[in-house]
Amino acid sequence: MTTDAHRTAIVTGGARGIGAAIAARLAEDGLAVAVLDLDDAAAKATTDAIGAAGGRALPVPVNVADAESVRTAVERVAAELGPPTVLVNNAGVTRDNLLFRLTEDDWDTVMSVHLRGAFLMSRAAQKYMVEAGFGRIVSLSSTSALGNRGQANYAAAKAGIQGFTKTVALELGKFGITANAIAPGFIETEMTRATAQRLGLSFEQYKLDRAAEIPVGRVGQPADIAHLASFLVSEGAGFVSGQVIYAAGGPKT
Ligand code: NAI
Question: Could you tell me if the CB of 19 is within 6 A of ligand 1?
Fold first, then answer.
């Protein structure tokens, strides 16, 4: 059994999509996994599936944008599963619109969940990582950080995640903690299904159109991102820190 098998991981937004795939993969790798999500029922379904596959997982309700909710949730993970030394900041939302139509609420919601959420979660979890002398923080950025029509708010948040990650890597490296960002391209989830709907396209057509632009000739799956997350949180990845790794089936979207 590796040291990894004694670790506790938190995956925010782990109830579905990319987060659920990361949670399942880390459980397969032998970590105890806390699935933190706004959607409690979906989080429970995800942890039940992990349990049925032989893993150890706990659903914990959280709103990552709320400091008190984050504090309570992280303390509960530490008490019930063990001190969290792996954190995946994955919870996310979109509120897409062209700039002239973008409301203050569209802006604030996206900033709160992605940026404030990553900040609050990382601040709460780093305490346990510093105590353990080991930590892995992985945050979800996006190819949209490079600019994407209709996503001024989301692009700004995902670019912000990259600066946040590099700074956390600088500050916490001496405690054995790494911080990295994964920037996926198009991944097939409810989030991209909703984008297709907003654009008035069937999801099947949208996926075909997008796959045609991707060098490897297919859209991404949540498992593609889970594979990379599994590497970044592993014991052996301790010399990889402050990086943004694009996982987009090619050098750009
Ligand atoms: P999704 O919409 O399928 O799942 C997001 C999860 O986050 C949901 O379970 C939701 O309940 C949870 N969540 C939302 N707000 C929350 C909050 N305030 N507190 C706690 N949980 C909350 O999304 P998907 O596609 O799985 O995306 C996961 C991450 O990957 C997001 O950060 C997204 O921006 C990022 N990403 C996704 C891409 C894609 O093509 N699907 C591409 C690049 C990045």
Answer: yes
